[in-house]
Amino acid sequence: MKRAEILDSAKEIVTKDREEQYGSPEDNFATIAEFWTTYIKTKCVSPGTDVNISPADVGAMMILLKTARIAGGSEKADNFIDIAGYAACAGELVSKKNE
C-alpha cells in the first residue's frame, strides 16, 4: 500500500465504519478511559493513588498496542492503518480539549 492509501483507509475507518459500529470515538474512548482507570486503580497501584486516563490517552495507548504487535512480528498494513486512525482520533480529542 502507498501512504495515501493507508491514510485514506484510516479516514474511511474512523469517519464511517467504526463510528457506525461503536459510536463516536469521543464517547467510546471516554468509556474505555473510565474502565482502564478503574482497573488500574484496583489492580496496579497502591490504594489512594491518583490515576486519570483521558480519552486521548486511550488513543495513545492503542497506538502502543499496535506498535507492540508490529514489534512482535505482525507487520501487516492493517496495524499501520489503525495507528493512523488512532492518532487522528486522539489528535482531534486533544484539539477539542485545548480550544
How is this fold's topology laid out?
Elements: H1 3-22, H2 25-43, H3 55-71, H4 77-98
Helix pairs in contact: 1-4, 2-3, 3-4
What can you see in these coordinates?
- The structure is a single chain.
- This protein has helices at 3-22, 25-43, 55-71, 77-98.
- With 99 residues, the protein is mainly alpha-helical.
- Helix 1 (3-22) packs across helix 4 (77-98) and helix 3 (55-71) runs antiparallel to helix 4 (77-98).
- The mean pLDDT is 92.
Keywords:
99 residues, 4 helices
SSE sequence, one letter per element: HHHH
Structural class label: mainly alpha
CA radius of gyration is 15 Å
Can you tell me the overall shape? globular
Short synopsis of the structure:
The chain has helices spanning 3-22, 25-43, 55-71, 77-98. It has 99 residues and is mainly alpha-helical.
